[in-house]
Amino acid sequence: MELLVITGLSGAGKSQAVRVIEDMGYYCIDNIPPALIGRFFEVCAQTDGKLRKVAVVADARSGDFFYKLLEEVESIKATGVDVKILFLDCADEVLVRRYKETRRRHPLLDVAGSLEKAVAADRLILKPVKEQANYVIDTTLLSITQLKQRIIDIFADSASSFFQIDTLSFGFKYGIPVEADLVFDVRFLPNPFYIPELKHQTGLDQPVYDYVFGQKETGLYVQKLFDLLDFSVPYYKNEGKSQLVIGIGCTGGKHRSVAIAETLNRHFADQGLKAKVTHRDILKDR
């Protein structure tokens, strides 16, 4: 198992970082008291490998409990666990500006008396942790997209393991899926529904698949779809998207869209991309 401790200055981007880490398959807990990290990790270790990568966020919000963080990390390391610390840093003046823009309350404001003093106190408390951190990211000049890419570069096994393409077949009669980034309509293709022996089968059955791809226009359309997606997918990845959802729709979501979605999914998988296919409406009206 792996344990990643995310910490750093309040306002430096920990909330954004943990979202990216969670998208990468880590089980994440925010604002955990350091004294509970060891116990929490023990519970995760009892899940028979279901929680292989765990991340926790600990910072000055824990108050006096925070001083136990390094002690707890060393205790967990002594058991043979791979523990890494990611520290988010940022210039004081930028932190002050961010808090003023968002009108959020700094966790040390009541103790320090002013926002500037709260930022300075936060930095002082965190200094020993920063010195022990495995990775330090300064977010002073980083956009959210750039921060996301920095985290991917550090923690993702590969860009393709982080970026996932979800191909979703659906029926227009049941509504367009709101989660789809791209939607393609294949209702112009001949419909197996009107072939008696195919009507009650689906695009997962070989006879229906063979019928759909036995049409000349299907092959031409899918090839053009490959060309479009092969061109555009790298740009979606470069933009920093973690997931691209492609909707393929026919009338009922059982025949044509299913067969083409399966083909698209295999196409992406053959390219080494992380790909998944879902057939939303395949069991409707059964």
Description:
Strand 2 (27-29), helix 2 (37-45) and strand 3 form a beta-alpha-beta unit. It is built from 11 helices and 9 strands. Helices cover 43% and strands 19% of the residues. Helix 1 crosses helix 7 and helix 4 (92-102) crosses helix 6. The mean pLDDT is 90. The protein has a 5-stranded parallel beta sheet, sandwiched between helices. It is elongated and about 75 Å long. The two termini are 43 Å apart. With 286 residues, the protein is an alpha/beta fold.
Taking pLDDT < 50 over at least 5 consecutive residues as the criterion, the unreliable ranges are none
In one word, what is the shape? elongated
Assembly level: single chain
User: What is the succession of H and E elements?
Assistant: EHEHEHEHHHEHHEEHHEHE
Straight-line distance between termini: 43 Å
Q: Average pLDDT, to the nearest integer?
A: 90
How many DSSP-defined strands?
Answer: 9
The radius of gyration is 25 Å
The biggest sheet amounts to:
5 strands, parallel
Helix run count: 11
In terms of DSSP E residues, the strand content is 15-25%
Based on secondary structure, the structural category is alpha/beta
Task: Enumerate the strands of the largest sheet in spatial order, edge to edge or round the barrel.
Answer: 2-3-1-4-5
Helix content: 40-55%
